[in-house]
């Protein structure tokens, strides 16, 4: 009698009506307000960068899976999300050929080399940004507002020449920065949608932003209790990172307790880099570093199986 052969995928084995495609579709929808804001403030340059990143990420995934004989998975929209997030993390003036290189690095080196979706150990878009920043630091730190080269608010807080925008401009997004990080308003709209759709929970974003707020207030850039915590939240990549990248299923802890620990770690590292580091922004590096600790966090905070003896 013949026996049927079954392939058992890696855990966790969860029965849910949500598919990868439906989850990624909701993430794309949540990213649309920030996409519109980025195109509004940075015009055609932003649109070209976003389109280039998305097309390049999808192409990289297709080419790799075709070349290695794997099932083609571009229909799950995960490469689209990676492309959008990578574009959100670069300045609108970045040459398009650099965007292509960053996209291929994110998909092939960071994602596919580790086995594809669900197997990567760090966030692909953030790793792509870090790679571009290390390779072309000048191009990755040049921003414009209304066609004029300017320092970002975080750089001004760090000591660069310039005048800080008012809080209203910072909240709406009329400031220098990467394409998807400038409008806190647009990002919060996306956050509300993700909560409504139950794609993410509040634990990581709130704990991450809250940690930065508290530490920045206490430590301050010019001595104890001298921090401008509101600016630290509304400018830079904190809102983008806390809502859309620190919450990545693959590279964040499974339990709520673990997620809070993870987020606090991100907040501490972000604050330390922003205040004491040589670079004004620390969100990308903080999330990447904490991604590496996720297996350890899960090991110590995951609930024990009933009957298990330590």
UniProtKB/TrEMBL annotation:
<feature type="transmembrane region" description="Helical">
    <location>
        <begin position="126"/>
        <end position="145"/>
    </location>
</feature>
<dbReference type="InterPro" id="IPR011303">
    <property type="entry name" value="RnfD_bac"/>
</dbReference>
<keyword id="KW-0472">Membrane</keyword>
<dbReference type="GO" id="GO:0022900">
    <property type="term" value="P:electron transport chain"/>
</dbReference>
<keyword id="KW-1003">Cell membrane</keyword>
<feature type="transmembrane region" description="Helical">
    <location>
        <begin position="259"/>
        <end position="277"/>
    </location>
</feature>
<dbReference type="InterPro" id="IPR004338">
    <property type="entry name" value="NqrB/RnfD"/>
</dbReference>
<feature type="transmembrane region" description="Helical">
    <location>
        <begin position="23"/>
        <end position="41"/>
    </location>
</feature>
<keyword id="KW-0288">FMN</keyword>
<keyword id="KW-0812">Transmembrane</keyword>
<feature type="transmembrane region" description="Helical">
    <location>
        <begin position="94"/>
        <end position="114"/>
    </location>
</feature>
<dbReference type="Pfam" id="PF03116">
    <property type="entry name" value="NQR2_RnfD_RnfE"/>
</dbReference>
<feature type="transmembrane region" description="Helical">
    <location>
        <begin position="47"/>
        <end position="64"/>
    </location>
</feature>
<keyword id="KW-0285">Flavoprotein</keyword>
<feature type="modified residue" description="FMN phosphoryl threonine">
    <location>
        <position position="152"/>
    </location>
</feature>
<dbReference type="GO" id="GO:0055085">
    <property type="term" value="P:transmembrane transport"/>
</dbReference>
<comment type="similarity">
    <text>Belongs to the NqrB/RnfD family.</text>
</comment>
<comment type="subunit">
    <text>The complex is composed of six subunits: RnfA, RnfB, RnfC, RnfD, RnfE and RnfG.</text>
</comment>
<keyword id="KW-0813">Transport</keyword>
<feature type="transmembrane region" description="Helical">
    <location>
        <begin position="171"/>
        <end position="195"/>
    </location>
</feature>
<keyword id="KW-1133">Transmembrane helix</keyword>
<keyword id="KW-0597">Phosphoprotein</keyword>
<feature type="transmembrane region" description="Helical">
    <location>
        <begin position="229"/>
        <end position="247"/>
    </location>
</feature>
<dbReference type="GO" id="GO:0005886">
    <property type="term" value="C:plasma membrane"/>
</dbReference>
<comment type="function">
    <text>Part of a membrane-bound complex that couples electron transfer with translocation of ions across the membrane.</text>
</comment>
<keyword id="KW-0249">Electron transport</keyword>
<keyword id="KW-1278">Translocase</keyword>
<feature type="transmembrane region" description="Helical">
    <location>
        <begin position="202"/>
        <end position="223"/>
    </location>
</feature>
<protein>
    <recommendedName>
        <fullName>Ion-translocating oxidoreductase complex subunit D</fullName>
        <ecNumber>7.-.-.-</ecNumber>
    </recommendedName>
</protein>
